Amino acid sequence: MTHRSRRHIRAAAGFTLVELLVVIGIIALLISILLPSLNKARQAAYTIKCSSNLRSIMQGMQLYAAQNNGWIAGSAATSGLHFMTQGTFAVPAVPNPFSDTNAPEITTANDWQAPIARVLGIPFEKGATLQQRSLRFVQLETTGYFSCPNNADVLMNTFSVSAPLDYQGGSVVPYASYNMAFIFTLLPSTASRAPGVSTTSAPNRTHGNITTAGVVAYDPPPTYIPKISKIANSQVKISFADGSRSTRGEVPTYDRSISGSGGSMFADQGSWSLQTRGFYRGQCPGTGSSGGQAAAPSASAPSDARIYWARHGVRVPFAKADAMRFNAAFWDGHVETLGDLEGSNPSLWAPTGTRMEVTPGNTAIAKDTYDKFISPRTGTQVMN
């Protein structure tokens, strides 16, 4: 073979610069086409894993109830009652009460995670000190059953610099993934109080939320007690859901108090309410939370709170209603993925027969929720 032939073969075997650029362009085009599909597949997998977590939580709740005469976990009137009757709010005060620095086994009166983890055989710190409470909270928040895969790497801080949890010498802890539907944990306002539970500590902790002036926010029916057998229409009643306790668009915070009101770090009233800090929709167009429009971003609340809890939709701040979606477990054990407006029906979040204040224009209920599920009714209404 001549020198000229060898040079010709080498030239024919290589690629020109134009050919290389064409190949690179084709690869880039294929990647741009495939990436959205891969991302959608990943998000679908996250939604499925999150749904599986919620089913496991409900299985744990049912097991807890079976072992505790039907009572549900996570209520200040059941698994957390001792923090109310022997804690800092007890009246009269008791010697050596439970407190923020002496709280064994559970983190707050509405802690449902520790009781459910116990029956599921999940190990966790059970000590009473503030540091041990902090470790317990972190251990359970980061265990597989209680952690939504779309909630990774989100942190929260205390809203009171003087009262943080003490995790590794700091106040920042992992963000809670799931919240319980709080109204199911309550006794009706007419129910008797346990010894030590006062008329001022009972509302919105162990009993229905009625002000001293007699104004009803939400109050379970007179025959209701927080037992699974007392939850009628369980197939349309939410038990747990993707949650964001606690934010309304500001940096997420937590309340370390062992007997905080409204569900503390573990539960909240539901996405129907503009008072919620677990399922807030106030920045969604149409909620009417600010002059008939969505609440505008501000220095204190710069973002749309839905991105923290409605984690399975488009997750674009200030998107239209139902663009963001969340997973919810129901008391019969099944799980659904709901749009943020679709899931704001007040009747989903409370026992059948609960009285609620649903006056249009009231700061407690979103306008689009009222228009879709309540109108033309006004005032205090009974939920079906």
Pairing-aware structural class of the strands and helices?
Answer: alpha+beta
Sheet with the most strands, sense and barrel status: 5 strands, mixed
The helix content is 25-40%
Could you list the spans in which at least 5 consecutive residues all have pLDDT below 50?
Answer: none
Computed CA radius of gyration, to the nearest angstrom: 25 Å
**SSE string, helix = H, strand = E?**
HHHHHEEEEEEEEHEEEHE
Tally of strands: 12
Strand numbers in spatial order across the main sheet: 8-3-6-9-10
Number of helices: 7
Total individual domains = 1
Strand content: 5-15%
* CA(first)-CA(last) distance: 93 Å
Shape label = globular
User: Whole-number average pLDDT?
Assistant: 88
How would you concisely characterize the structure shown here?
The protein has helices at residues 3-13, 17-67, 81-85, 113-120, 130-141, 306-309, 367-374, and strands spanning 155-158, 173-174, 178-181, 209-210, 216-219, 238-242, 253-254, 267-268, 325-330, 335-339, 355-357, 380-382. It has 384 residues and is of the alpha+beta class.
Question: What does it look like?
Answer:
The chain is α+β, with helices and mostly antiparallel strands. It has one domain. It is 26% helix and 11% strand. The protein contains seven helices and twelve strands. It has helices at 3-13, 17-67, 81-85, 113-120, 130-141, 306-309, 367-374; strands at 155-158, 173-174, 178-181, 209-210, 216-219, 238-242, 253-254, 267-268, 325-330, 335-339, 355-357, 380-382. The strands form three sheets. The chain has a five-stranded mixed sheet with strand order 8-3-6-9-10. Helix 2 (17-67) packs across helix 4 (113-120). The chain is globular, with a radius of gyration of 25 Å. The chain starts with a helix and ends with a strand.
